[in-house]
Write a structure and sequence with these properties.
Strand order of the largest sheet: 1-4-5-3-2
CATH topology of the largest domain: Transferase(Phosphotransferase), domain 1
Bound molecules: 2-acetamido-2-deoxy-beta-D-glucopyranose
Number of domains: 4
Helix content: 25-40%
Shape: globular
Distance between the termini: 69 Å
Number of strands: 19
């Protein structure tokens, strides 16, 4: 008898497998209707960026984050993010990456909005200009009803739902703010999940869920409801949507089980039948699984295995000494990088991707195929990949001499960065980008920054990670937007409207020029609430551009050439994308084969025009404000009065 019930439980588990779904669908974005006072907007924005960065790091390591940046009133940013507790870590990363792509919808720039709540099916993010960590309810709380009416016995549905949500709201406060379960009775099953955010204590958790329950009745007769509160989340549906394997110990929210009664009353022959049925079922599901896997790795599997680009996982694992820490050479947004030596003696860099790509294998391989065809002296070569192993790996040529970030940090070996070396790096990077934009497949890098410019023994620059954004499908998920793009380098139209063209790379390149010449990272300026762009622009205004040149050079540089490069940097970082030159033109300018025009527009918009652009909505075209003040003196004066909003 116990065998029969064991088999029954087993069958149940097979029938309700966990879902392989990162739940990265947007539910609601609710922007605050207050704005930061104009004078403090600049500082608020800086703190906002810092907070978002800190949030990302913490979520990757502990799945939730509570961050406060800044100390002064009206400038401090409070931020919070958390994943649903049943999500696996990769799913959490995917959901949060998606969530971050929405942040620009309530961004402090240019509208000055100083708060927003971002609800996803699997995660939550909120930031605000005040301490909301004791708030479990807010006037912006919302209920989202499903689209389909429940069809079936309505009174049973109602009774089951009431029992489920009541039990969830009792369980969750006792169970670290999280509970999942289902009620199955009279042929109607309802699945539910309740979670209170990490900062909510158990009594507030109870209140919050109770309030959610009073609202969900408004959704009848829909079969699915999601209640979104400042302090908690509650969802029920007629289908299973949570990952039950994470629920420990599994909660048996089960009502009377008719099947169990039948089985209990049955004879040994039924047990025998069940055994036979199970064997058949197992064989059948195994066959199904295999054929599904074959389909998943793609129609391409044969092509992949035969391709020279495919490197067996085992070989890469050995090459990097099983991804040992001593071989780790870097950690990026999209994954860790390890140094490895292939059996034939070639040294390579192996990138372990954070994101699970098994669903996208076809697409992934096609893109690797395409990117690996791109060869240029200033681009890091992609040698191959591994997609048939347990995780996806990318194999690159190994560039021995670190990134520019390394060379400009802590002033290591900075005497090596002579003027000639810096010029060579700027020129080479420009050539590499021009090739990417105009001669290859029109690839936009999206994440040009010091850390992505590697240098070899001779200080020849090589751009890393290009095309990475293409590896992730764009249609549904805008993951690429989340992976790529480092605040401080991102063009305004990209941050604000998510509008992406090659000119976004040109902007980042402009920032890069200034960093290389000044020897300072753009971040080091942020502390004084001035960006490197402000500094260079204001020096340009007072005809003292060369003041920014790195003092480590001790004056050993041609002043005219340095000013020329800085001016090109300003041209590249103009607020309007149309005004920025194409990379091929930049190459010509550096080569003295093209006239260098005067930068006409500061790389930031002023506070009052930011006010008046309140009506810009995502999707609408971005009309850059033209620069109205003509005299350079008044320009500098406004800067001193902090009237600028920068990116
Ligand atoms: C469910 O959670 C477990 C534990 O984190 C994880 O190993 C598994 O991959 C998850 N399953 C799905 C489908 O997300
Ligand atoms: C902001 O929204 C709240 C709630 O929706 C409302 O009560 C308040 O009047 C609004 N404030 C402004 C300035 O619009
Ligand atoms: C913060 O902003 C409010 C409203 O704009 C203002 O009344 C207050 O003086 C500001 N506080 C500080 C310290 O600037
Ligand atoms: C829980 O938090 C709320 C709001 O922050 C607070 O009013 C209440 O005293 C707290 N309760 C306990 C038991 O700490
Ligand atoms: C939360 O704390 C702030 C001060 O930290 C206080 O002004 C506010 O009333 C508190 N809100 C609640 C709901 O306890
Ligand atoms: C719904 O189910 C209840 C309990 O099982 C039963 O008493 C009732 O007659 C059913 N109603 C309909 C319309 O089937
Ligand atoms: C249970 O529901 C299914 C479909 O919802 C229906 O086909 C079946 O007849 C129902 N069984 C009973 C015993 O009500
Ligand atoms: C819900 O809670 C009640 C009372 O604690 C209990 O009798 C019932 O079995 C629970 N239901 C489920 C589905 O766990």
């Amino acid at each position: 008898m116990s065998l029969a019930s064991f088999l029954l439980v087993f069958l149940f588990c097979r029938f309700f497998p966990a879902l392989a779904d990162p739940r990265a669908t947007e539910l609601a974005v609710m922007c605050s209707n207050t704005t930061a006072p104009v004078l403090q907007r600049q500082a608020f924005l800086t703190n906002f960026y810092d907070a978002m960065e800190a949030l990302t790091d913490l979520i990757t390591s502990q799945r939730y984050a509570l961050v406060v940046k800044g100390t002064t009133q009206n400038e401090t940013v409070y931020a919070f993010g958390e994943c649903m507790k049943d999500l696996s870590k990769p799913d959490c990363d995917v959901c949060f990456a998606q969530c971050k792509t929405r942040v620009h919808r309530c961004s402090p720039f240019p509208r000055g909005t100083n708060g927003g709540m971002f609800f996803f099916d699997g995660c939550y993010l909120r930031y605000d200009g005040y301490n909301f960590f004791n708030e479990s309810l807010s006037p912006r709380d919302r209920t989202i009803c499903g689209t389909e009416d429940f069809r079936g016995n309505w009174s049973v549905f109602k009774a089951n739902t009431v029992e489920l949500v009541r039990n969830l709201s009792i369980e969750a406060p006792k169970n670290e703010g999280f509970s999942v379960g289902y009620v199955r009775r009279s042929n109607v099953t309802i699945y539910g999940l309740a979670q209170c955010w990490k900062f909510v204590n158990s009594s507030s958790c109870q209140n919050c869920l109770a309030e959610a329950i009073t609202r969900i009745g408004s959704c009848s007769p829909k079969g699915e409801v999601k209640a979104l509160n400042a302090g908690c989340y509650l969802r029920y549906a007629t289908h299973n949507f949570y990952n039950s394997s994470n629920n420990n110990p599994p909660q048996e929210h089960r009502g009377h089980n008719n099947y169990a009664i039948i089985v209990a009353a049955s004879s040994a022959s039924l047990a025998f039948l069940l055994i036979v049925a199970t064997v058949i079922f197992l064989v059948w599901t195994n066959l199904l699984k295999r054929s599904r896997e074959r389909r998943q790795v793609g129609v391409l599997l044969n092509t992949v295995i035969k391709s020279k680009l495919n490197m067996p996982y085992e070989i890469l694992e050995k090459a990097t000494d099983y991804f040992s820490d001593s071989n780790k050479v870097g950690e990026g947004g999209s994954g860790s990088v390890f140094k490895g030596v292939l059996p034939d003696g070639t040294t390579v860099a192996v990138k372990r991707l954070t994101f699970n790509t098994s669903q996208w294998a076809d697409h992934f391989f096609n893109e690797v195929n395409l990117i690996s065809g791109i060869r240029h002296k200033n681009l890091v070569k992609l040698l191959g990949c591994s997609i048939t192993g347990p995780e996806s790996l990318l194999v690159y040529e190994f560039v021995p001499n670190h990134s520019l970030y390394y060379h400009l940090s802590g002033r290591r070996n900075s005497q090596q960065l002579t003027w000639e070396v810096r010029h060579k790096i700027i020129f080479g990077t420009a050539e590499g980008l021009a090739y990417l934009h105009e001669e290859s497949q029109r690839i936009i890098h999206r994440d040009i920054k010091l850390g992505n410019i590697l240098v070899d023994e001779n200080f020849t620059p090589k751009i890393a990670d290009f095309g990475l954004a293409r590896l992730f499908p764009e249609d549904k998920s805008h993951l690429s937007t989340a992976i790529c793009g480092t605040l401080g380098y991102m063009a305004p139209e990209y941050v604000v409207l998510g509008k992406l063209t090659e000119k976004a790379d040109v902007y980042s390149f402009g920032v890069l020029i200034m960093e290389i010449i000044s020897g300072k990272k753009s971040k080091s300026f942020v502390q004084n609430s001035y960006s490197i762009l402000h500094r260079v622009w204001s020096l340009y205004g007072s005809n003292k551009l060369c003041d920014i040149v790195d003092t480590m050079l001790e004056g050993n540089y041609p002043a005219e050439e340095a000013c020329k490069l800085l001016k090109i940097g300003l041209l590249c970082a103009q607020a309007s994308a149309e005004l920025r030159p194409a990379m091929s033109v930049v190459v010509k300018m550096i080569n003295n084969n093209h006239e260098i025009t005067q930068p006409t527009q500061p790389p930031f918009l002023n506070g009052s025009s930011a006010e008046s652009s309140k009506s810009i909505l995502p999707g609408e075209s971005f009309q850059p404000r033209s620069y109205t003040q003509s005299s350079e003196d008044s320009m500098t004066e406004s800067l001193i009065h902090h009237k600028w909003v920068t990116i």
